[in-house]
Specification:
This protein has four domains: 185 residues, Protein Transport Mog1p, Chain A; 99 residues, Immunoglobulin-like, CATH 2.60.40.10; 125 residues, Four Helix Bundle (Hemerythrin (Met), subunit A) (Up-down Bundle); 55 residues. Helices cover 37% and strands 27% of the residues. It is built from twelve helices and 23 strands. The strands form six sheets. A seven-stranded antiparallel sheet has the order 16-17-18-22-21-20-19, with helices on both faces. Helix 5 packs antiparallel against helix 6 and helix 8 crosses helix 9. The protein is rod-shaped. The relative contact order is 0.12.
Length: 557
């Protein structure tokens, strides 16, 4: 007897496309049409004990006697509440005189004392429904003799270690780099460095600077060594420098005659109130210095000292002859200094930004060379699939018999409606996870109430592809190959590529898909369906990890 696998509906989405699991208009199919004939049936139930202690197990028996053509569906899951189901045993089958005698056992328990009633259980035999009798069970407390039972201290709390993560190492490295860069910028740019002697002298007013220069000249060994050329060179530079800053801004580059003529003009124009005698004293010393420097003249040392004292006096006379700066001039000078400070600060800011950008770019390039550009970019900006890949994964079991699988997130149950004509003849459990428009993971388990001689899983695979086409997918490429799980379960792997519409728009995106299909015991169909974007390298790693984690358990008879 053969059964079609393409007639059930439940909704989920892959890349924004609604998915139907086990339907002619859906993606994955897991339902079989069963058309058995039914005849005489008899159902009885019993328990091995009506009184137990807390936590003890009782065995609940359901016995069905029916003919060989009838489909029998036993209760599954927590249908014995308020008692808890801790184990569902394999069905014992005995064939005798053209009839089946089926015995199904369940392990039940309760952890609270009291009197409980096991509710009636629904048994489907063919197209008929039977109900077992309700049974009463008493759960008793365990009496503890405290006079004989020793008392012990409460055990200490055991720390549960979280999965190791290297995020703190990256944070520490980033903080270290920022600290080093900040220190270097402060030390070389923003730190107020101690001034050198030359810098301190340069900050003095011209008058004070000239006086200090004369003192240093006195401390020099020029006169002791009869080095009058250098002595007069320094002496005349001092007075020329002072005049250059306060009287005539070309005093340093002018000849003696040019400088003296300029001073006389300033005097005659009432621009500088310097006396004729002062000008003559300066002229005499400057010409004597010219003779010493260029004509190898050698005046007496005492004359040199006299000229030094004369220059000292002339500096004072020039200072007295200069008019006091007006308030406007003082204000302009203050504004000038403030503007200079602003320029220095602006230059520091620009330099800091340039260095910081350079270091950031250099760091980015360095990490990109080592780890790859996309990885570094996604680490900084963020990537949904990357976060899933590097997050804490969940390994759990889904359905019965269970499919054990590791996923980035816990799979949520998806309600799967069953047509009325197939009610009671099968159970479907579906679980899924979706990262919008990027990743979809679906796990489905279909268990028939009665084993079949042949389960054609290829029809389910064909139905999946047709559903993709009906939902707008195109350019579907398909490959099939055998697949073996780590624990030895063999199935069919269907995989390939496709183009799918984005958000039901006209824009298409390249995608990949993989489905694993397994059958066992003639009544169990298990499928894992994975879909993801083709250009998502992290999704590739996620799906590879998911596929490598799949383990299956054999179905119970």
């Amino acid at each position: 007897m053969k059964y079609d696998l393409r007639f059930m509906k439940t909704k989920f989405s892959v890349f924004g496309l609604p998915i139907a699991i086990g339907t002619s208009s859906g993606i994955f199919s897991f339902v079989f049409f069963l058309f058995p004939l039914f005849s005489f049936s008899q159902v009885t139930s019993s328990i091995d004990s009506t009184s137990i202690k807390i936590g003890e197990q009782i065995t609940y028996h359901i016995q069905v006697e029916t003919d060989t053509t009838s489909l029998v569906v036993f209760p599954e899951g927590q249908s014995f509440s308020p008692l808890e189901t801790i184990e569902s045993y394999k069905t014992d089958t005995l064939k005798k005189n053209g009839k089946y005698n089926l015995v199904k056992k369940y392990g039940l328990t309760q952890f609270d004392s009291g009197k409980y009633t096991i509710p009636r259980q629904k048994i489907i035999v063919g197209d008929k429904t039977f109900y077992t009798d309700s049974l009463k069970v008493e759960v008793n407390n365990i009496v503890v003799d405290t006079t004989k039972q020793g008392l012990y201290d409460i055990k200490p709390i055991i720390e549960v270690k979280k999965p190791s993560s290297n995020w703190w190492k990256y944070l520490l490295l980033i903080l270290l780099i920022i600290g080093v860069v900040g220190f270097l910028l402060y030390w070389f740019i923003w730190r107020k460095k101690p001034l050198t002697e030359e810098e301190e002298i340069a900050l003095l007013p011209p008058y004070d600077r000239a006086k200090l220069a004369l003192k240093k000249l006195d401390e020099s060994p020029y006169l002791d060594n009869q080095n009058l050329k250098d002595y007069y060179s320094d002496l005349t530079f001092i007075i020329r420098k002072y005049l250059d800053e306060k009287v005539y801004d070309r005093a340093l580059e002018s000849t003696t005659d040019e400088l003296i003529n300029r001073l006389n003009l300033l005097k005659d124009g009432n621009q500088v109130d310097i006396s004729k005698e002062d000008i003559k004293n300066l002229e005499r010393i400057l010409k004597r210095a010219d003779l010493v420097k260029f004509a190898k003249s050698a005046p007496d040392v005492e004359l040199a000292k006299f000229d030094r004292n004369t220059i000292d006096l002339e500096i004072d006379h020039v200072k007295e002859a200069l008019p006091e700066p007006t308030e406007e001039e003082k204000l302009l000078d203050q504004k000038y200094r403030e503007e200079q400070d602003r320029k220095k600060k602006r230059n520091k800011i620009i330099l800091t930004v340039v260095i910081s950008l350079f270091l950031l770019i250099a760091t980015f390039v360095g990490f990109s060379i080592k780890y790859g550009f996309d990885y570094v970019k996604d680490t900084i900006i963020g990537h949904d699939s990357m976060e899933l890949l590097e997050g804490d994964w969940v390994r759990s079991e889904y359905g019965f018999p269970p499919i054990k699988i590791s996923t980035p997130e816990v799979l949520k149950r998806i309600e799967t409606p069953i047509p009325n004509e197939l009610q009671g003849q099968m159970k479907i459990s579906t679980f899924g996870f979706e990262q919008k428009e990027r990743i979809t993971i679906v796990v489905s388990n279909t268990v028939l109430a009665q084993a079949q001689d042949s389960l054609d899983i290829t029809k389910a695979i064909e139905g999946n592809l047709k559903t993709l086409e009906s939902r707008g997918a195109r350019n579907i490429l398909t490959k099939n190959e055998k697949f073996t799980t780590p624990n030895g379960a063999e199935g069919i792997k269907t995989y390939g590529t496709l183009d799918y519409p984005l958000n039901n728009s006209d824009k298409y995106i390249n995608g990949k898909y993989t489905s694993l299909s397994f059958t066992s015991s003639g009544k169990v169909i298990q499928q894992i369906i994975l879909t993801w974007r083709k250009d998502d390298v992290y999704a590739d790693e996620i799906m590879e990890r998911v596929l490598n984690s799949v383990e299956l358990k054999e179905a119970e008879e």
